[in-house]
Amino acid sequence: MTYQRYYAYQAGAPTGRFLSPDPGGISTADLRNPVSLNRYAYAYGDPANLIDPSGEKAIGIPPNGPITDCWSDREGKTVDCIFYPKGGWTYILPAPPKAPTGPPVGVSQQGQYDMSVEKAELMIVQGRIASLGDCTKVLGGASAADLSKVANSITFLDGRAGSIGSDRTEDSIAGNGDQTTLAASVSGSIAVTLTNNGTILPYVVLGSDMYNDPSVDPANTLLHEVLHVALNLGGPGDQDLKAYLSQYGFTSGFGGTGGTDDITQWLKANCPGGRQ
Amino acid sequence: MNSTIIITAVMLTFSPLHGSQVVSDLTDERTIIETLVVPPHEFSRDRIFELANSFKRLKVGKRQLGVLSIFTDRSTAAVETGVSCEGNYKQWQVYRQQLPMADSLRAADVIFTRNGGWIRLKLPHQNPELRVLDGRDPEVVTIDGIAVEIMAATARKQSRFEGCGVVGSLEPVLQVRVSADLKSAFPLKATMELAKALGYQRVWVSFRRDPWFLCGRFGIMYPFSSPELPLSEEAYYGAPQYTCMVSCSGAAVCSGPMLRPSSNGK
Questions:
Q1: Is B118 domain-assigned?
Q2: Based on the structure, what is the number of domains in chain B?
Q3: How far is Cα A14 from Cα B226, in angstroms, rounded to an integer?
């Protein structure tokens, strides 16, 4: 007796998914046949060691002499500067062949471009997190300080064509085997996180819309990505994140995959005590 | 003597077959989600059944959910099982175009739940197949007369910020196709019923009227559906999508319906 049954499958059929069941089953090993068990083994030794850990660290911070890094906003106005008396930051990733087009969110006046992007984004999102107070009732116990720590752990990567996004793959950053370039991964989106083994990693790839789309609020977008990482929630169209927040009363104000502004506004309203 | 037999049996059972590689593995006491890469020349119907059976015997055991996804190269596996698409049509097109041509694609998705087990299989130059391994239509849960078909299953690890549950434990994440138009009340009820059917307190479920989900776990949308008919933007956004979860209070909550993005949403 076999417990296997074979149905021809026609995808897209609205109701009758299966056609012509085969009463004779199929000529493969019986599920309940222990004799054939020894044919079934495969790589079971140590799966963790079978995963290719090829991810390269994206950053390095060797001392490079005293340096002051500053950042400007979208209009070019200086936002802030940091002086590093013992040395600046150096990115181990290759410098981009040419600066990407479009006004950058943050431009380091000294130091290399990629690192400045990372630090500028971090500064921007930390500013937005500082506007939140006690979020523990609406983020499963997470405080704004927790979000700040998560943000600090994130590497922000410029995924625009012409930057490192053109020649670095997801695999080279996240070790997930995905040979898609960062630029392709973020194509059509504002920002994406990288995943490996079902976990959202602390890497956020920024696309051109982040820099060029005037409707995009960078701080809200970055906070949105921090939430993805903190909560380990991806899912189609941010729907998982929204479903998670809806248990605390969040309702998205519009359809579609947007919601970064909605979420920030909702957090501000529900995380009292933040910097105004 | 006995110990020799046991050692030999263990070696036979666990010796890796050449070329197969587990490239991702999420496991806890109730759930196992595994992605396997096998060489193209080993990817046959019989071989997939062997792998499915060994997966059930040796890994799923008494777990409530076991998923084995099988591909022939790691990059395709990563693209198809990753969760990085945010859901707009433009990005969906990019992902779809990156995948190998459907006609030559080899892919399999093996799912075991408490209701049984099944395989979705795509062999080169053949239409996608669904093969039931165990149980009677185990991929379908009928709720209020509406068939809810599990198209894909994976899991997420609980974060530190859940408000309930156990940090690091795995929760099922399902993509299901329903046989009727989606209205908001149905996903709420169906989420609770699916949680019960799978034996979990919390599940995450994306509901869609058709098999083409908006990104998420991309694999099921491409190798196991009708790849020769790419969706138009109109069709892509034409059917609403709900995503629901069981909250800490024990009640289901949903976001959606997800429709065409507004001007400030991407």
A1: yes
A2: 1
A3: 12
